[in-house]
Each structure stands twice: as C-alpha cells, then as structure tokens.
C-alpha cells in the first residue's frame, strides 16, 4: 500500500452532495484494505482562475493509504463525475496526519476574531460602567 494526497474540487452547485461523495470515495479506498489518514473539507473557495466559467469551487483534501487498484478506480470515478471540476493525486512517502496550512490559518483567523470580539465587548462594558459612575456622581452632587 502506498500513501497518497488527494485534492479535488467540486462544482459549487453540487456542494450539498460533498459529504456523500467523500463517503463513497472513502469506502472505495477502505474496501481494498486502505485507510484515510486525514480528511479536510475546506469548503467553498474562490478559484485562482475561472474553470468552465465557474469562479468558485468546494475543495476537499484527503491523505490516504490505498492500493493501486483503489487509486485507479478513484481516478476513473473523478474523470467521469461531472461534479468534480479538477483533481490532483500525489504519491507521498509517508502518511500525513497533521493539519494542513490552510486549516491552521483558518483556525488562527477564527481565534483572532473571537479575541477581537471579546476585547470589544470588554471595552464596551468598561465604557458603560464609567458612564454609569459619572451619572451617579452627577446625581449625588
């Protein structure tokens, strides 16, 4: 069994069918004794250039260990599935299980956004409490 990294892009109108496609492709790999080491659904993203007048696509990354027969079947499935716009299959030397750079960047972006929102809420609460203190001081005088 060899290790592979697979990235495929799905037509944006077919985005709701992506989980079913992932399940089918995973079953194809696993029925010959292979395994999926990493599966990342990157979601809809802007394409670098239009493909068949399409500007967005749904991206999926899979790192798998599979037999040659399973990979031939998978590439044939990609070729004849109209929903798959592009695919890339790369043979790897070893299994990759850690997060991809894209997922790490998205996670950091989400964390930064939540920290920013928390800071904004804290600042707003501080401003409201200082405004209340000023009104209390003015009422006491």
Automatic annotation (TrEMBL):
GO terms for biological process: translation. The keyword Mitochondrion does not apply. It comes from the Bacteria. GO terms for molecular function: small ribosomal subunit rRNA binding; structural constituent of ribosome. The keyword rRNA-binding applies. CDD domains: bS6. SUPFAM superfamilies: Ribosomal protein S6. Belongs to the bacterial ribosomal protein bS6 family. This is Small ribosomal subunit protein bS6. It comes from Parahaliea maris.
């Amino acid at each position: 069994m060899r290790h592979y990294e697979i990235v495929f892009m799905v037509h944006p109108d077919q985005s709701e069918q992506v989980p079913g496609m992932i399940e089918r492709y995973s079953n194809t790999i696993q029925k010959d004794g292979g395994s999926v080491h990493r599966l990342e659904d990157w979601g809809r993203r802007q394409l670098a250039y239009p493909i068949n007048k399409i500007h967005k696509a749904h991206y999926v990354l899979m790192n798998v260990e599979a037999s040659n027969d399973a990979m031939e079947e998978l590439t044939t499935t990609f070729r004849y599935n109209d929903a798959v716009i592009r695919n890339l299959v790369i043979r790897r030397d070893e299994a990759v299980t850690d997060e991809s750079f894209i997922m790490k960047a998205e996670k950091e972006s989400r964390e930064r956004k939540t920290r920013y929102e928390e800071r904004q809420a804290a600042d707003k609460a501080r401003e409201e409490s200082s405004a209340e203190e000023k009104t209390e001081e003015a009422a006491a005088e």
